[in-house]
What does this fold into?
Amino acid sequence: MPVTDQQVRRLFRLDHLNRPKGQTAARVGMDDKTARKYRRLGKLPSEVRMKHTWRTRPDPFAEVWPQLQEQLAVNPGLEAKTLFQALQKQYPGRFPDGQMRTLQRRVKRWRAEQGPAKEVFFAQVHHPGRLAASDFTHCDDLRITLAGHPFPHLLYHFVLTYSNWETATICFSESFESLSEGLQNALWELGGVPVIHRTDRLTAAIQPRADAELFKRRYQALLSHYSLTGQAINARKAHENGDCEQSHHQFKRALEQSLLLRGSRDFASRQTYGPRQKICYTDLPSGRCWPTTEGCRKQSTQPTKSVSGPSRPCTGACQSPKSPKPTRSTVLLFTAGSLDTIRWVVRRDWHAFTAVVAPANSRG
It folds into this structure.
């Protein structure tokens, strides 16, 4: 059994007490010869131990490693297990199964030293009232039906990245109309306007054979009306809109659990899609600030009218700074309303999350 630094330190302490050297060596669990060695050196085992840099057996992959390097350079995604199985087929009986771990360590070292560079990620710092993110998400995987018929729909999801306050509007396609309705619903429900609105490239919202420049002008006019600054993520970089992407997952998982608890995904009609039924009660843990007041307090004042509708008062979502701390419960309630104008609002307010259906004659 190798001698540890702790044993040698204790040996040195006991030697300072002028006790018999044989007794001190036995007391620390060390042989007399070994104790004499460390007394003579005056060093700890970690200080005299030589670093092991030599091989104890020949490298079994020395001859084939240049071939493997060429394959890895062309296809960096190749796994060590795949390469090892190919070697066993190419050289039957030469490479036993126990050598696969050796090749895995060799490939891992090659990736670190010569492999492709990894993408660098920086931690994001969120500030109250500055950034809101939104995106569309499909709900077909929930398999909701009306009177036995499939009910395909999407959600326009709006999230404040600091407090995770969120709201969602049901829509049936990715289009400017859905984007405009969902964004305005979110801002009026919030009762304020953030500084920046982040989305993906919105390419799916531009219909085939549509004028992309017209879409851009209409979207810019919508942002200007609310004094918003638009921000688009890079192409094929969905993680840059990660707050909204993760909120999609959390919300749909909660809704999936509520449907499982309900025992059925079918609703008799549009009117009975969920009037006054509590369909979800679960917990949605949050890694950041829960109160919406801190995330909304610094919102700028929004217009007194929507782009296409009458004036609407502030809902008060950013008020009540002295309200009690929020619970972690999620309650989704449905009231009667036409599915043509149905709007889910998931409010992370001071008490609970609520999802309601807007009446057919309501804009909010």
